[in-house]
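Practice problem: DUF1097 domain-containing protein
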Amino acid sequence: MSGYFALAVSVGLLAVIDTWLFGVPLADFLPGLVWVSFIAWGCFFHSGAGTKGLIPAIVGMAFGAAVGVAAIWALMVPLAGLGQFAGPVAVGLGAFAICLASKVPVLATIPASVYGFAAVAGATFLMAGSAEMDPVGAYIPTVVAVIIGALFGIVSEKFAGLMTKA
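Answer key — structure tokens:
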């Protein structure tokens, strides 16, 4: 089987499992966060796959999520007085921090950090209107979903490799 087709089969089958995992057994702990897993899975391949892609996908996205938590907190507290500019300024400061941090080799893949920032923001705002809306509370579920997605990336790569050798 060609590598191209093997990867398509591998990703397709594992996407079923990933979606089921988030929709059934993990639904209470990671409600609606399958999309974060898929972003991390894509980030794994975008970052070079293998161990080379696993580290920036997990570390970069977790870092970006931490920056996102800080930005959301800043928007709700110290920047709140800026009115309609609070959100844009918070995002701008977060983007600034992510770019500066890319000087550190493990954080050099800026898109990975941006994906993590966006993921924690999405997870936080999914909880909007509930007593649970809390960027700090969204961090751990987001990072767990990132780890699961990145691991699905490596499993899909290995599974595709097995199918091409058969």
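Discussion: The first helix runs from residue 3 to 23. Students who identified this feature from the tokens alone can consider the problem solved.
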